[in-house]
Amino acid sequence: MWLALDTSGATSNVAVGTAEKAVAELSVRRKRTHSEQIVPHIEAVLRLAGLDRVDLTGIAVTSGPGSFTGLRIGLATAKAMAFALQIPLVGVNTMHALMYNYKNAAGPLLSLLDAQKGNVYYSLGRWTDGRLELAIDSRIAPLNEVIAAVKDQTEDVICLGEAAELFAAELKAAGLRLAPPYQQAVRAAALLDCASAEWAQRGSDDVFTLVPQYLRKSEAEVLWEKRRKIK
C-alpha cells in the first residue's frame, strides 16, 4: 500500500491504496496550516484503512508548483517517513496530478494554480490511448496570456485547479469550461495513480535531493535581492 500526500494548495489531501484503488481518502479545506493537520490526517487515513505506518510500501507527494510553505511541509513529511520506513518516495508534478482527476478525458485539459499577482502556473495536456501527453508543461504567466494561448483550441478546454476556481469569471468569459468544484484540487487517489506511472517510468526519488519545484522566486528572495542592489 502506498501513501499519497498533497499540500500544494489550500486543501490537505491524503490517501492510502494502490494505483487501481484508494482504500481510504481524506480531503480537508480548513483555516488551519498544513503543519497542524497533515500528520493527524495521515493517522486518520491509516486508521480508516486498518493499516499502520509499517504496512506502507511507498509514498507519493506533490513536489510543485504550488504554495511555497505547503510544498515544503508536504515534502518534509513525506521524506521523513520514507527515510524512517526505508520505502520508495516519488515526487509528482502538481499539474500532472491534477490531470489524473480527469483521466482519459476526450479533450484538452488546462491545469491552473495561483502564482500570485495575477499570474498562474499552468500546463496544457490531453489523454491519448491512456497516456498523458503535454503540449505545454509547468510554466508561469499572467492569466490573460494563458487564456490567449489556449482559447483558439478547436475543442472545449476543461480548466482544473484552485486557480480555475479563483479566476472562474475570466475563464468562463473566454469560453473555457470549468471542472466541477470537487475536481478543482488534487485528488490524493489520483495522485496514487500518477505516482504509479512515474514509478514505473523512472523509479523513486532520492529523499536527500528531492526539492520543491517552485518555478519562481519567493517574495522573501525578491525582497532580499532588491535590498542587495540598493546597497
Description:
With 231 residues, the protein is an alpha/beta fold. It folds into two domains: 127 residues, ATPase, nucleotide binding domain (Nucleotidyltransferase, domain 5); 88 residues, Nucleotidyltransferase, domain 5 (2-Layer Sandwich), CATH 3.30.420. The chain contains eight helices and ten strands. The strands form two sheets. It has a five-stranded mixed beta sheet, with helices on both faces. The chain has a five-stranded mixed beta sheet with strand order 8-7-6-9-10. The longest helix is centred in the first third of the chain and has 18 residues. About 3% of the residues have low confidence.
Quick structural summary:
The protein has 8 helices and 10 strands. It is α/β, with parallel strands linked by helices and 231 residues long.
Strand-helix topology:
Layout lengths: L1 E5 L5 E6 L4 E7 L5 H16 L8 E7 L3 H18 L3 E5 H6 L9 E6 L4 E10 L2 E12 H8 L7 E3 L1 H5 L1 H6 L3 E2 L9 H15 L16 H12 L1
Parallel strand pairs: 1-4, 4-5, 6-9, 9-10
Antiparallel strand pairs: 1-2, 2-3, 6-7, 7-8
Give a quick set of tags describing it.
231 residues, alpha/beta, Nucleotidyltransferase, domain 5, 2 domains, 5-stranded mixed sheet, 8 helices, 37% helix, globular
